[in-house]
Fold Tol-Pal system protein TolQ.
Amino acid sequence: MNTDLSIFHLVKEASFVVQFVMLILLSASVSSWTFIFSKRKELNRAIEITDEFEEQFWSGVVLAELYRKLAAKDFEPEGIEKIFLAGYKEFSRMRQAGNVEPGVQVESAQRVMRIELSRELERLDEHLAFLATVGSISPYIGLFGTVWGIMNSFMSLGNVKQATLAQVAPGIAEALIATAIGLFAAIPAVISYNRFSTRLDRLTGRYELFVEEFVVLLQRQAHQK
């Protein structure tokens, strides 16, 4: 292989604009991979907590005991645990207030759980927009670098009487590297965004279903003496 056409040599000899485009794309790629690993860990943790909590919740445990158990944990509850704690705390507060209609007790607890659910989803959705942005604009940024590099290659032939492939090949090759880096940044970002969005939608469905099921249990408890 001709060392003059090696990737490192081409990047080194590229114009400032093309090098700047490559730097932007590499930075976007590193940032997106950082978000991918952290978001994957975060979603796995949320799903694990949901599985463990639902197993406890539907095991027949008394709600008050489950509440005390979660509230006494050494570390801060997460995900569905926070939704349950917020709802049951509000329900208990309304019951202890006295002279509050059962329907009002349940509605208040449901409203608090909806707020906590929205906060959890907002937290889990963080950085997903960045992955979507990287996936959508990286190919165009790379294409800009390619067009700029090819344009410079042909402009440099203006004073040459006889152009040869050897004269334009390095410039075209270094320009195409920008497109390759753009695709390298975009493809993992798009795949990860789609995968994380699907998992988050499923987790959202589980959260919302739990809230509805928990409301039914609270309605029964609210009408008990």
